[in-house]
């Protein structure tokens, strides 16, 4: 037994005793006259008999096995929950903005999960085998911030005071990379749930690949909090249906069934039988749980952990804004501060006499998870050390993949493949060139995990080593079914978890279904790769419903998303290399259905492809009186090259600039960009898509020395060749456009 002093308690003595491992269970309910357990009671008696402690005193059992001399009552689960409530309402009140109702309503659910089940280490939020926690109903972000603060993450109370303020660590919705301990950016409802499906899938696949008998180095759960809004969003159907089919047994979702959304009681618009809905998906469902009973939630989570073959949904009935005397159970608590009077009344109702943002030290101590978390990680590190001794190659691969590093041989292997593609000089559809790139790179990158939305035979996202993921077999290819939105969000979850580089494919026009998930990938700077084929009117007979017009231009508007539209096998190989190596954002790769002629180029031009825009064919006569620059992408590059030959007969010298990625080009220094696109020479851009974005590169709409050959209307149903001719995508039309601006 050790006596020490604790200044936070007025320098009162603190007595620590080592407890047997079996006695360190937070769930133990052996209370004796205010003492925490029979063990503490015995220690109390021994101390009293020695005259070390005067009677009466109460002791509280802590996970650190520390006994505090105090006249206060032991910390109850209700105290832990109320700490969340007051921090949430205080932060929202200070900001005069936010959503206090959900954190106040889910407080006991959080107590059950975070104090009794969640394996995490606040001192090292990136510990590889931690449980993942996702707050899908991210508008209730103060719940997560309160939990992170209370359990010991690097999130001091001053950051809670700065909730929703500029450059704080507590933004309006949780953002990965901003707040320590936040696993994903949430807010667009339902996407966090889909991210959680991806995380749970990542855990299962990594465990199958790396674990060996007696060596479970990947063994953790994924937990998600969801609300009514998450389950109303269509993505919840897509993601949860697939999760059930795949049997993701380590996914546990806790549903905050409070019956309230912004517009009021959900009885007017959300009357689904949610338990039966999820049972139909093949989930294990724990219905009718009192969300304000910590013991009941604890038992439900334990039941979910015991189920290994199916994901679990725990349906928790709660009261939104619980604790607020006049606003609990109403939409008034959903998206607005309670107001000073209601905050004061809530403090009274909760018997919480402490000032704003003040948490008594015993409650902090009861919440603190740093010691427990360090023990979890230490135990895992010891297991991993033993694993490394027996399986050094697997351990090295695990470490590399978890760090997001590519193999040392990747750069040279990519260069070799690019040279091989240049030597082969194939004229194929760029979707086929993409498949060739996948074949080359996936064979050396086991972290690549692909998939498509029921279009594998069209988008060519599979390769010779593809193995389908099923409920009984781990593989590297996911058949998502017709679920584009969930496909993108699940891919984001795979990327967030770590250990994988996900890529997925569908037609470019269907990027509309998944756009918000693509945007979230960009916001989170994830290494997610989105393959979009059938990229223009060139897809032909399927007609305008499937022919992309505005999509490439629209995707280019998303910050931090690199959009590549390569023209042949070589540019495709470079685009894939760049997307795989990029660790600060996602990439969208746009490919043709139709064959595209191979473009001849020298080694310097090949080296320049990764710069996003480069000189593919230069002025044949640098001294010509009339010169022009044609900028083209994808299937229109051969048209530009053909126009260059036609114009040479007229004495007009033309430089063809291939610009497969405008974002990469924009990142180049000014000198390079000016060298590629000389300021004084007329320019034309050619792309079978919307024209607006190209004026940035050629000049203003009314500039007589600038023009764009594009399409600003919907397409038609016909063979590709007929459509290109009908809409003017020919070398003759491009040449005429150049003649129209040269010499003005």
Summarize the structure.
With 744 residues, this protein is of the alpha/beta class.
Question: Which characteristics define this entry?
Answer:
alpha/beta, single chain, 5-stranded parallel sheet, 6-stranded parallel sheet, disordered N terminus, 744 residues
Description:
α22 (569-581) links the parallel β15 and β16. This protein is of the alpha/beta class and 744 residues long. It contains 29 helices and 21 strands. Residues 1-71 have low confidence and may be disordered. The strands form five sheets. A six-stranded parallel sheet has the order 12-11-13-14-16-15, sandwiched between helices. The longest helix is centred in the middle third of the chain and has 21 residues, at 370-390.
Task: Reconstruct the topology from this structure.
Blueprint: E1 2-6, E2 12-16, H1 38-49, E3 66-68, H2 77-95, H3 101-105, H4 107-116, E4 132-135, H5 141-151, H6 157-161, H7 191-210, E5 222-227, H8 228-232, H9 234-246, E6 251-257, E7 260-261, E8 264-265, H10 274-281, E9 284-290, H11 294-306, E10 312-317, H12 340-349, H13 361-367, H14 370-390, H15 392-403, H16 410-424, H17 430-442, E11 448-452, H18 456-459, E12 477-479, H19 484-497, E13 501-507, H20 511-524, E14 529-533, H21 551-556, E15 562-564, H22 569-581, E16 587-590, H23 603-608, E17 614-617, E18 626-632, H24 637-648, E19 652-658, H25 662-666, H26 670-676, E20 683-686, H27 695-698, E21 706-709, H28 720-726, H29 731-741
Parallel strand pairs: 4-5, 5-6, 6-10, 9-10, 11-12, 11-13, 13-14, 14-16, 15-16, 18-19, 18-20, 20-21
Antiparallel strand pairs: 1-2, 2-3, 7-8, 17-19
């Amino acid at each position: 037994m050790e006596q020490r002093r604790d200044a936070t308690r007025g320098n009162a003595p603190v007595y620590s005793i080592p407890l047997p491992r079996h006695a360190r269970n937070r769930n133990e309910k052996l209370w004796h006259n205010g003492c925490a357990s029979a063990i503490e009671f015995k220690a109390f008696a021994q101390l009293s008999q020695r005259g070390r402690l005067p009677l009466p005193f109460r002791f509280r059992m802590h996970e650190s096995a520390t006994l505090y001399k105090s006249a206060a009552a032991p910390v109850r689960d209700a105290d832990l929950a109320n700490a969340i409530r007051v921090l949430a309402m205080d932060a929202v009140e200070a900001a005069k903005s936010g959503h206090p109702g959900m954190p106040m309503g889910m407080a006991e659910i959080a107590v059950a999960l975070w104090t009794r089940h969640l394996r995490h280490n606040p001192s090292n939020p990136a510990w590889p085998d931690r449980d993942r926690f996702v707050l899908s109903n991210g508008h209730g972000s103060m719940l997560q911030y309160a939990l992170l603060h209370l359990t010991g993450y690097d999130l001091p109370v001053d950051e809670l005071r700065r909730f929703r303020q500029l450059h704080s660590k507590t933004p309006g919705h949780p953002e990965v990379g901003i707040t320590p301990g936040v696993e994903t950016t949430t807010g667009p409802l339902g996407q966090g749930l889909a991210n959680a499906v991806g995380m749970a899938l990542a855990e299962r696949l990594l465990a199958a690949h790396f674990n060996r008998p007696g060596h479970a180095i990947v063994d953790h759960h994924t937990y998600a909090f969801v609300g009514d809004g998450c389950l109303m969003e269509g993505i919840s159907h897509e993601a949860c249906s697939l999760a059930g089919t795949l049997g993701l047994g380590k996914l546990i979702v806790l549903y905050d069934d409070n019956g309230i959304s912004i517009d009021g009681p959900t009885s007017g618009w959300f009357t689904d039988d949610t338990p039966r809905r999820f049972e139909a998906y093949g989930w294990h469902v724990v219905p009718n749980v009192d969300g304000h009973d910590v013991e009941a939630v604890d038992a439900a989570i334990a039941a979910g952990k015991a189920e290994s073959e199916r994901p679990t949904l725990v349906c928790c009935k709660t009261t939104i804004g619980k604790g607020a005397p006049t606003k609990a159970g109403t939409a008034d608590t959903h998206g607005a501060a309670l107001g000073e009077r209601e905050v004061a009344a809530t403090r009274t109702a909760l018997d919480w006499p402490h000032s704003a943002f003040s948490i008594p030290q015993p409650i902090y101590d009861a919440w603190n998870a740093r010691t427990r978390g360090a023990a979890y990680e230490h135990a895992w590190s010891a297991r991993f050390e033993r694993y490394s001794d027996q399986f050094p190659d697997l351990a090295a691969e695990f470490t590399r993949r978890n760090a997001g590093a590519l193999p040392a041989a990747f750069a040279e292997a990519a260069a070799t493949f690019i040279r091989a593609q240049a030597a082969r000089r194939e004229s194929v559809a760029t979707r086929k060139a993409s498949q060739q790139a996948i074949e080359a790179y996936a064979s050396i990158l086991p972290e690549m995990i692909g998939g498509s939305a029921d279009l594998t035979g069209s988008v060519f996202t599979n390769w010779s080593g593809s193995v389908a993921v099923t409920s009984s077999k781990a593989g590297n290819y996911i058949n998502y079914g017709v679920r584009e939105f969930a496909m993108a969000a699940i891919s984001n979850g795979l990327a967030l978890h770590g250990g994988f580089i996900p890529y997925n494919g569908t037609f470019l026009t269907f990027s509309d279904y998944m756009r918000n998930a693509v945007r979230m990938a960009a916001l989170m700077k994830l290494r997610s790769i989105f393959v979009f084929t059938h990229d223009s009117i060139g897809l032909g007979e399927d007609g305008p419903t499937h022919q992309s017009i505005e999509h490439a231009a629209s995707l280019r508007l998303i910050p931090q998303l690199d959009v590549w539209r390569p023209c042949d096998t070589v540019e495709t190989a470079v685009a894939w290399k760049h997307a795989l190596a990029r660790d600060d954002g996602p990439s969208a790769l746009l490919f043709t259905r139709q064959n595209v002629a191979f473009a001849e180029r020298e080694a310097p031009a090949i080296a320049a492809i990764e710069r996003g825009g480069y000189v593919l064919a230069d002025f044949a006569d640098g001294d010509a009186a009339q010169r022009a620059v044609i900028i083209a992408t994808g299937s229109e590059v051969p048209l530009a090259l053909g126009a260059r030959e036609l114009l040479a007969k007229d004495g007009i010298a033309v430089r063809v600039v291939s610009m497969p990625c405008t974002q990469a080009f924009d990142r180049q220094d000014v000198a390079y960009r000016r060298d590629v696109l000389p300021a004084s020479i007329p320019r034309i851009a050619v792309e079978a898509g919307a024209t607006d974005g190209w004026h940035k590169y050629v000049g203003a709409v009314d500039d007589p020395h600038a023009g764009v050959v594009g399409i600003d209307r919907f397409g038609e149903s016909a063979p590709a060749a007929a459509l290109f001719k009908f809409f003017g995508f020919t070398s003759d039309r491009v040449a005429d456009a150049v003649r129209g601006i040269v010499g003005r």
